[in-house]
Every structure is written in C-alpha cells, then in structure tokens.
Amino acid sequence: MSEHGTILQLKKCVLLQDMNSDELDAVFRLTESEDFAAGEEILTEGLAYQSLWIIVTGRCEVVKSGNGLEPNRLAELEEGAVFGEMSFFEKAPHSASVRALSDVSTMRLTRRRFEDLRKNCPAAADKIACNLVNILSTRLRRMDEWTCQLVEGNCSERQQGEWQEFRAKLYSGLQF
Amino acid sequence: MSSLETANSYFEQAADVMGLSSNMRTLLKTPLREVKVQVALEMDDGHISTLIGYRVQHDKARGPMKGGLRFHPEVDDDEVQALATLMSWKTAVVNIPYGGAKGGITVDTHKLSAGELERVTRKFVDEIHDVIGPDKDIPAPDMGTNAQVMAWIMNQYEKFHGFNPACVTGKPVELHGADGREEATGRGVAVLTRTLFEHQKRDLAGARIAIQGFGNVGSFAAKFLCEMGAKVTATSDAHGGLVNEEGIDIAELIRYHDEHKTVKDFPGADAVSNTEILTADVDVLIPAAIGGVLNAENARDVRAQYVIEAANNPTEPEADEIFEQRNILVLPDILANAGGVTVSYFEWVQNRQHFRWELDRVRSELDRILAAGFNRVVTIAEEKKVSLRVAAYILGIGRVGRATVLAGL
Predict the structure, then answer these.
(1) ipTM metric
(2) Does any domain span residue B224?
(3) Residue ranges making up the domain that contains B111
(4) Residue B3 placed within a domain
C-alpha cells in the first residue's frame, strides 16, 4: 500500500480521530509497519509490550485462555481497530492474545516513539491520549453493565421472583 | 418416627396447601441458631459429671424467641429442634409477639439431689446467658423443670446482666411470677375443649374424658374440665392408669397425687395399664404426657371422637391420617397447649411493666387469645377444607412468613 493510501487508512482509525493532516503525518513518521501471516500470534497474553497496533488491512481475533479450558474468543477486530492499548500506559502483562485471522498489515507505535511525539507534536499525542481514554471508558461502561446483568441474573432477579411469589401467596385469599 | 420427622411432616402438609417453593420451605424450617454446650457438674459424692445442654433458636421474625427448657434423659438435638420449630408456629397461632425456641439438658432429674439440680441449672446459664435475655430468647418451664429452676435461672442471669426478671418466665409467684401461670396450659386445654364442643354444638356437661398424664398439664386440665361439668373417667401417669365410669374425684386425686407423687393405687378407681387409657371408651382423649403415643399401631383402637393434644407431638402422622379417615377430630398441639406460652407472655409483660395483674385478668385475657386463635384456625380449616392441624400450621407459617417478608432478609 502506498504511503498516501496508508495515511488514508489511518485516518479511519478510532485512535487518530480529529487529527489534521500535519498531525497524521507526524504520527505516521513515528510508526513502524508490521505484517503478519494468517494464524500468526501478534501479541501474547501474559507478555508485556508497550505498543499500540493499528490494523491497516486484514482481520484479527482477541483470545483469552480459560483456566485449563478452551480459549475464549473475546472479539474480532477489523481494519481501523486498535489493540495493545491496555498495556500501553501501564506496563502490565497483556490480558489477552491477538492472532491474525487473515494476512494482516499493521502500523505499530511504540511507547518510546509516543514520547517523541509528545515532544515533536504535542497536539497529536494529546489527541491519541484522549481517544484512548474514550476507548477504555466505553469498554469500562460496558463491563459495568455486564457485571450488573450478571449479578441480577444470578441472584437478585431470581430471589426477587421467589420473594414476590411468596409475598403474593401470603397476601392472597387467607386472612392471617 | 422422631419428633423432628413428625414436625417436618406436618409442616410439609401445610406448605403443600400453601404452595410454598422449596427454597421458602428451607428458609422457614432452618433454625436461626443452635447452641450445644458442656454442662460440667460436681456431684454430691465428689465425682464429676459432664452433661450436654442445648438451646435451639428457630425464628425471631415475630419477636424475641420463646420456649421451654426440658431436663430429660431423652433430650437430643433433633427433639429440641423439632420443639423449637413447633414454638414458632405456636406463638404465631395465638398471635403473641414471639418467635420460637427450645432447650434442654440430657439428664434424669430423678437421679439428682436438689443441690445438683441447682448447680446444673446455674452452670447451664453460665454457658448460654449471652444468647438469651428478655429481648432475645426467654426460657420457661418444661418437662423436668419448674418454677424453682426458673428462679435459679433468673438469679444466675442477673449476676451477669443485672436485675431483669423478664429474662425467664414460669417463675414462682413470690419472685416476679404471674398468677395463673402454673395452671395456664391445663386451663387452656380445658377452655379449648369447651370451645370445640360449643363449635360442634355439643354439651360438655357429662362428656367422658380420658387424660394420659397427671402432671402439671393433665391435673389442671382435669380440674377445670370437671368444673365445666365434664367427667374424667380415666387418667394415668408413668406408673399406671385409673378408670372409673362414674367419673374420678379429681380434687381427691390431686390431693392423693400431692402426697404419693403418683396416681397409682388411688382408692377411688380401678387400676388399668397406662396404654389402656388411650383406647378407653370416652368422648375426649387428652394425651398430656410425652410425644408419639398415638401411632399406627393404636390409632384404629382409639374410641374417643375428639383428641385434644395437650402434649407436644403426641400424634404421629400415620395416626393423624387414620383419625382423619375415622372422622376423629384432632385439636392440634400448637393450639391446644398454647395456654402456657400465652400466660408466659403475660408474665413477661407484667415484668416489663412492673405491674401485677389479678388472676381474673390473666384468665380473661387468656380466654380471649385462645378463642381468637381457635376461630381463625376453624375458619382456615373450613375455607381450605383441611384438618384443624393443617389449618393451624397454615396460620402459624403464614404469620411467620408475613413477618419475614415485611422485614426483609
């Protein structure tokens, strides 16, 4: 893909929203292109690389190993998607693995290059940071909803049902 | 069948009619707390005896828990739990603001001296005083315990917690006890028998009555039934039975029993065996001794038309079914013997008010409460087309259930 084509693809990326062409160009200069064959593991759960990957072409899957069980597929990522963001700010092991489903072409921004970007083009670095916060907060909100549903589904919903039924029986018909 | 199996069987019958889910049944049946303690005792001859004491607190949704303390060689975990559960339904049936509890020590009091009995009682209080009290759990007399034992309990409890006579009921009248407490269970049995006869449009005067057991409950029931015009034609205690078709002179028998500590060889009646009492040719049979005496083996031979359960759990479920088939009407224990706990409640109220009621007031309040319980049970039995026992359990479980859902978990 031509440089221009790659920049156009990057522009679609959620991480690089609201950037003007100078800022996009500054980011592009600091990223490295990396290609993977279908089935290849790009990022391994438990290891820690402080980098962001943007999928330029191809598809990937996010897989989390179960406790001795079959691995769990958490998500499928398409062009324009970002991964590696959780370990990017906090140097901690990746919470899941990312594997190429097709031949994949990515752009990688390492944490060190991001620091260079902060010096050279703080506006672009700021936008990346804001977009990352958006990505993470959206995910956190979804997690909160899941947790609530899980808790309600497992106890309070069923318990309230039984409790309500018990109450209804005690308050219908007979006088105590 | 154990007391616990009997109690559970009746609970399940009522729960089936009420359509309760299995989780709600478990919630209602499971005791809140079970305490089992060592009661170490130095005997008069110097040797050390280690006894086991129990207190089971079944339910407190309707108020502080209430129940007797039984000193008997057959006391065990199962029996105490069954009786604690029964107390929850019983206090609810008569609508007094208590939950249910029961306790006991596995001991034969006949083998203890007065000093040993006192030391056992005080030691037991030492072990359980933290979990009982006027707002938590209030013990009362039961088999093998009496007003004197309650006085020791109060005194020992007060050593830890200060003056508080409402911590136990069934105390001597001279020591914050209530007039009418001693007679209460027996009197309640008599009053309810009369109420049942009125409901059945029958005359109690001249009705023939057999009472198994001539202890506190049996003797007072006999006394009041005679005053109401009925004839006690058969009675018994652990040592033997008596029959007199013309009616036994109960006042005379009470005097004889006070002197000889048994009804055996009473000159005013013919001697029969203890078990023959249960199949005597009478209108009303009142088991007033131990549990399980009416069972599949003798239920078909019972000749009475009415069974008034003065004892706890005297009828096993098989016998109950046979009585129902034979149209023998059973007034269940959780209503029939509720007079005792009701006057215990009056004693507790008087202790808390520091105001003594006259005997007339105790009796009239008791009559009012028992009549209300009886009427409610009969109404449920007619509406649901169930036995008086199932109706009483429905009432008890229903009231405990309502308190539970109103308070929340």
Answers:
(1) 0.74
(2) yes
(3) 31-163
(4) no
